[in-house]
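Annotated sample (chain length 630).
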Amino acid sequence: MGLLARVAFFGALFTLQCCVSVLGTISRDTIFLRSYGAASVAALTLLLSVTTALALTRASAVLSGLARRGASAGLLYALCPAALAVGLAALALVSLLVPAAARATSVALYVWLEISTQLLTQQFWDLCAKAFDVAQSKKFFGFITFGSTFGSLLASFVVLPAVQARALPTEFNLLVGAALQLLVAGVLFGTAELFASTAPATATANDKRDKTRGGATATTALDTDASATSAIIAQIQGRQYLKHICFFDLLATVVRVLVDNTTLSVLSRQEEDQVKASLTRINAVQSVLMIPMQLASGPFFTRFGVMYGISTLPVSVFLFGASTYASNSVYSLIFTRALYNATSLSVFNPARELLWLPFNASERSHFKSFVYGPFRSLSRIFGAVFTMLLTTDAVVRVVGPSAMSAIMTAAAVAWFVDALAARQSYAAEFYSSLRQGYLDLTSPLVDFTPDQIVLVKETLISGAQNQVNYVLSSLSHEHIGLFSQELRALFYKTDRDGRHVTPLHSKLRLLGLHTAAKRQFVLHAQESYFLPDASTFPSGVFNTMDLMMMIKDKSVAVPRQLRVAAILACGYERYNADAEKCSEMLRRLVQSCSEDQSVVVCAAVALLRLSDWMDEDANVVLQRLLHEDK
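Output written by the structure step:
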């Protein structure tokens, strides 16, 4: 399946999943408020923290067991949505047909839908990760997340109005959602093998990189007992960047509990039909806001980096907290909650995934499973207990009913400041990975962010020689466009006395990168049968005059190996404006009697490449070399 076809496929799949999620969210809140007040949301969140963690752990264990037994990828990815759809339909029918069990059923629905959302979202992005490399992910995940917009629009303007027009009970929303989820399961059963089949190759590449990590980290990453948790906590405490990640996740989780509680507190003053209408409006406005956000998310990450993406959510939290603190208006709530949802889905969630880019596969799985598992569950428990405390009569009398909004506003400010401060830690973590030798810059699993680009540039300009050597060994010719000025400056770098300080092997590596980039361009131009436009010329480390100056310089500063490398590089300058001057110089070298034979032979090879294998003098030299007596 082609790249654009994959993007379209996952976008359509995400549309269906998000439509199911919207139908479930609106229905569960409406059904829950039939039997309970908004003050019960905190206790429900506490229950969710325990049950979802246990359910997700059990589901992961079951899927891992099936994978070890050789189950197909289609079965593994279709099993959960199918089972969850059947359970959702059963609970909806119980809620519809057994009114006496309404209180228990409303709680069960809330828990079931929460488990369903988390598990299916995790599976969806896991499959996406196997279908795209990181560079493609940063470029196209923003388009895939358009599915959440289309899903919200489908639910808000098609499914929900159709159900309401027929005066059907809220439970029919859930039955429609279950049917759509079964459709998703069927699609995954037939197609997951196409994408998951790429995983072994990726895993093999990751294993090769991870072997260099060695030592205690690799061992700890494989531990699953209680001591492993202590080891993970100790490692997090020793790494500032991981502290920032935990802080972001803590605030995102706790604030979500506060936002949900505040939303339902305001909406609980309405009748059931009005509650459904308000929740539908929130999703409709959210969908409209997400369209420009999703269009801008890819360019935003590329231009500004990950941490600015993280900082967008606290801005929306600040607006939500300030709005609900100042007024209990439903319309104000609808807009600010829609803005919060849109920012979370379109910008923050993709940025949160990109936070893990500096880690190798072993560390990513090692720390991510802890942060997204036990740590997030504890954060939800803390948020639930904290909310219960804030809603007690004693606290309300002391600090007032708007304390929750004030706390959200203050937390948003602290969150925003920490997100901007974390940029330095992000760059340091990337450099640490680079220096320790397990982050391969040539791998399709690694892409540069603005912070990383700045760090590599600083290393090339002022880094120690061993650091520069590692960066040069990791870069490929495809990266020249990002660092062309710094690479050229490195080649000509001198000390205070004007002496060249860059060693010969580094200069040869720079010439090799330049030659590889030019060679690829020339070969592609020859295959296309069209003369390339000047605007399509690749970025090089050197220009033609630089190469000619190196070739003419016979001093000690330019050893013979460097001259030979520069001569061979000239062979790929055929489409440049100075190609004719280059040909004349190479022809003089070919005809020279004073030059070393290796120089003459390399000049002949370069001249043949430059003349499309038509130069007579160069052909004579090579023919003579082939036929002379050994």
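Annotation: The domain at 239-439 is CATH 1.20.1250.20 (Growth Hormone; Chain: A;).
Annotation: The chain has 27 helices and no strands.
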